[in-house]
Amino acid sequence: MLRTFCLIFTMLISALSATASAAEDFDALINQLPHKNLRNITPLLEKIAAQDDERVRFVLTEIVNGDLYYLKSNKQVVSIRKTPDGDYQLTAIIGEQALENQSKSAMKKIRTSNRIRSDIRGLLAQLDLTHKKEAVRLAAVKQILDDPNSESIALIKKHLKTEKSEDVVQLMETAMAVNQFKTGSVQEKTSATKALKNSLEPSVRNAMVQELNRLSEYKNSELSEDDKALKAALTKAIDSIKQKRSIYEFIENLFFGLSLGSVLLLAAIGLAITFGVMGVINMAHGEMIMLGAYTTYVVQQLFPQWIDYSLFIAIPAAFIVSGSVGILIERGVIRFLKGRPLETLLATFGISLILQQLVRTIFSPLNRTVAAPEWMSGSWQINPIFSITYNRLYIVIFALAVFFALLAFMKRSSLGLHVRAVAQNREMARALSVRSDRVDAITFGLGSGIAGIAGVVLSQLTNVGPNLGQSYIIDSFLVVVFGGVGNLWGTLVAAMSLGSFNKFLEPLTGSVLANIIVLVGLVLFIQKRPKGLFPQKGRAAE
Amino acid sequence: MIPQSIQDLFKKFGSLPVVVGCLFITTLYVSVCNLAFSEGSALHVSTYTVTLFGKYLCYALLALAVDLVWGYCGILSLGHGAFFALGGYAMGMYLMRQIGDRGVYGNPELPDFMVFLNWESLPWYWAGSDSFIWMIFMVLAGPGLLAYIFGSMAFRSRVSGVYLSIMTQAMTYALMLAFFRNEMGFGGNNGLTDFKDILGFSLQSDTTRIVLFALTALFLALGFALCHFIVNSKMGRVVTAIRDSESRVRFIGYKPEHYKVWIFVVSAMLAGIAGAMYVPQVGIINPGEFSPLNSIEMVIWVAIGGRGSLYGAIIGALVVSYAKTRFTAIMPEAWLYALGGLFVLVTLLLPKGIAGFVPSVLDKFKQAKKDKSIAEKRAAEVKS
Amino acid sequence: MKLKKLIAASSIIATSMVAQMAYAAETIKVGVLHSLSGTMAISETTLKDTVLMMIEEQNKKGGLLGKKLEPVVVDPASNWPLFAEKTRELLSKEKVDVIFGCWTSVSRKSVLPVIEELNGLLFYPVQYEGEESSKNVFYTGAAPNQQAIPAVDYLMNDIGAERWVLLGTDYVYPRTTNKILEAYLKAKGVQDKDIMINYTPFGHSDWQSIVAEVKKFGSAGKKTAVVSTVNGDANVPFYKELGNQGISAEDIPVVAFSVGEEELSGFDTSPLVGHLAAWNYFQSVESEENEKFIAQWKKFIGDDKRVTNDPMEATYIGFKMWAKAVEKAGTTEVDAVEQAMIGITVPNLTGGTAVMNANHHLSKPVLIGEIQENGQLEVVWETPDTVIGDAWSDFLPSSKNLIADWTKPVNCGNFDITSAKCSGQNF
């Protein structure tokens, strides 16, 4: 009796002390963090991950996100959050109490490298299988699928029963099947192959190809019946996967083409107005784009707390900035060059040099940082091998929106009517009391303003620097000429077809040659149809 | 005062003797002062100046070529840089082969950049490049052929005006991208450089430099004479007529495209010669010469100098190039303002360029004089 | 009468010139040949300012050999023939004693014949493809074996990369570097099908297809790494596309040789965090010299946000070395300085000392850094010792037998060790 009691008592004590010492161990391990360097931190992290403590997840996540620091003064490990006023809000890991805000110089980061972070992600994935959020669980299974081991597969097996989400279950089953495929018997492999033949996960295909390669090393006569069946199943599955992949590849290329096309469209559409409608060879068009991009930069500098909405402010701002510079150029220079289109080339070229240098003087020759809003980052994963990046998607939509808005303006508004009237017959329009001077200024301002909007978009894709405009000016001219001067629809078709043509060529020839082929093709095309895809007809054509 | 015969001569040849004379005097002055006076002497002209002037003269020849098609035929080519660069590359290939086994890898056959890209043998289009005669042929044939193909296609299908300008720009842009490719076998971005000698004469010696300079001046004079005779010939009149109204010329029964192709080819060859003379003097040719901006700059020389005036083109090229040299030295941070401002002001205020400005001022002066004399006469008449 | 006037005039000119020369003799002229306009201005302007800062500092210390240093700044405007012309101007007109300049290889190649003809002295501060050693040039940037090969070693041994994507802009530096790396990887047993090489034009801005291809290449089950020699402006769209297509540094790390602090200051760094760069200097390295240098730079430029980078350190080392060599030689005469340069040591900003070797290249440590959110690079790996810059790569068949040694008895930039001959070059 007494013995039993003693036994129970000791067990109780030891159990109690075990939990107590677990907490102590965790604290001790955390306190070791500041003393480790990149080479010897991994074992420590593994030890931390093995602890049965609810803080483990938090600490590991903070490390991966780069938010775990320690104070230089007392080596206290803290997690940090940036406050709006530039300081950092600290929370001690041990004790979990909030500390005084500090500037970054008082702290030092717990440093990691890619290798360590990817190890931690593996550890986290196992913990994440039971996370509340479905997306996190999904990501965790995906992580395991990419690099499975017996431990993680066992965990998946365990959680598969309790998992409720359809998607997660499916992915978990795929992971199990892949595992079966890798470790199972020949029959199991064959059945797994059949189960997996519709999966597009790269790891599935890799496993299959590897297996097929292994089987191919033997002569057919050396293979057993089961092996042969497996081989046939594998070949069939890989073929079907390949077929699907090639369909998605085609769609992907088409999307790439359209997105390149919409960038070209945005860059060229302003020129389609100034050059196509007014007949001014505006070599400063690229600089209007550049001004738009710099406007975005300035807007972001002025409202650093609203990065996510900055583009909505930047679009009208850029329209106004570039548009007013455009009007200024028209009033100051171009109106004196009426009827001498080739000389507008020279004058606007001079203006473009001045604008470039102006930007260099004001903003320095260095590129400027334009941040991407959160909603423009990342991609929309449609299936494991096909995704569409959000920024490209929005740009395609935006470009089309700008195009149709402009079209509506030209066709439906009275100002648009005046613009077209002046473009077709200036004298007659004047005789009908259209103020052609005013219309000219507005048209040029409109074209430049739209170039400015293009600049906002380009700031999301490429460098914001003094040379930004130059890289788009030639392409813009080509698009307008290819489409047919003075025809907005032509510009749309030209931009989209040039973009797609380029993107379908690129995988075959490499990007440099694709560019050259497109250019040569364009030159030859113009020889066939000297006025572009959609030539202007009637008296306005001459 | 001036004998009647000389006045007749001037009427007949226009600015030709003046230009040739100026060139001759400059050449004589530069060569004598460079070779005869030692460094430190007040009259010495430094080698730096010689190569600089040599470069300017190449540009002048190039401007002449642009003016011939633009000023007299109304073809605004934004791709003359391509012809210039092709001529340059033809010369560069020859000079490259002249290096022989003195390259860094000591390969007697292949240029350095091919050795280090592990090329086994010369590509076919380098065949014959070690021959001087072939080089001369290529300097003319390369740009000429390109101009012929491009011109005959474009002019036959009546591509004109802005479309043509943009197409020429696309052409030179495509060539630039192509020459940037290392697989093309023209040295990629680095181009051709590190030349040693030409026809056995070291490119580093002052005498060779002077000879090259004098040759450039000679070619410029010849080019000027050629253009002069072309524009004053019957054919030149047709060409000018095409500029002014192509459709009328066609209705009269001429075939404008033939004339256009012809003049385009001649102009391209002149540009090619300019390129060929340029390369040994500056010591490098690379795809940057194909860049569309360069071609625009050439047009600007002509616009500033005076479109449709041969000596104007030369003046334009010299003035702008000199301004560029000076500005980049005096105010490196601000020279683009000055250059850009110059372009804008010239197009606004001097629509006919410098060459148009001087005569118009003279005319005004003459007119004023005439007015004055008429007024005096009238006054005299009134008095009497 | 006329003749007299002429003589008088010419004597005036002559005396004024003599006076000018006498004035010139009181200062030591330092040529600065960096593009201040055009495409390269973005990188080169900083180096011009660095040289000016170094000159100012030296002058505060009393100059060199008792004379003040006088900078002569010209703008070659990113135009390669203009580089040659300006060099001639600096050497024959301005009579400078040394030139600090050039960034791109083509500008150096353009300048080289002029420098050699006029026996000038050029300090070239940027990492480059090697395959060159001129008597008149000192290369203070990294040769491929001081940047590319250690980076690949790191990826292979520490990250465990087995599949390689070599991305580059289509010009000579990426071409050569990739050739060297390809040979190196093959020597390490990497198979052809595990290497993908892709070249893009300058300023390439549409990376969708290439990044998608990299993603596909990297999904074949083996750890994949990208070695990027993508140049300047093309980098921003490249990294943006990487980030947007969901390729993180943990999946497919990208190690870049042309992305440093200065370039990063013009990026939105969020998609780059964790990717790698290999250099010989990072601003984040903690050392006394470095802190001093950074403070001096920020004060000189009057901007607290400006960063320092590797080519600036190379300029710094080059300048210090030249100053030391001039003092050692007791003259600014090129041949004497050139001889005095070899063996000169200057403390690196990152600790240790840089040595100028007989092949006119430096011995430097190699650092691999991970890009941080604030645009700085944190060292994750460094070579245990300094690495001697190799003018001629051992991995290229054309140059494996060549060495450069500018001391007696070899005294040649491209000495063939098998034939014991100084091949090519006039020197």
UniProtKB/TrEMBL annotation, chain B:
Coiled-coil zones: none
Protein location: Cell inner membrane
Superkingdom: Bacteria
Keywords tagged on the record: Cell membrane, Membrane, Transmembrane, Transmembrane helix
Membrane-crossing residue ranges in chain numbering: 16-37, 43-62, 69-91, 132-150, 162-180, 210-231, 261-279, 299-322, 334-354
One Pfam short name: BPD_transp_2
Membrane-related topology note: Multi-pass membrane protein
PANTHER family, alphabetized: HIGH-AFFINITY BRANCHED-CHAIN AMINO ACID TRANSPORT SYSTEM PERMEASE, SLR1201 PROTEIN
UniProt-recorded name of the protein: Urea ABC transporter permease subunit UrtC
Organism this protein belongs to: Catenovulum sediminis
Gene of this entry: urtC
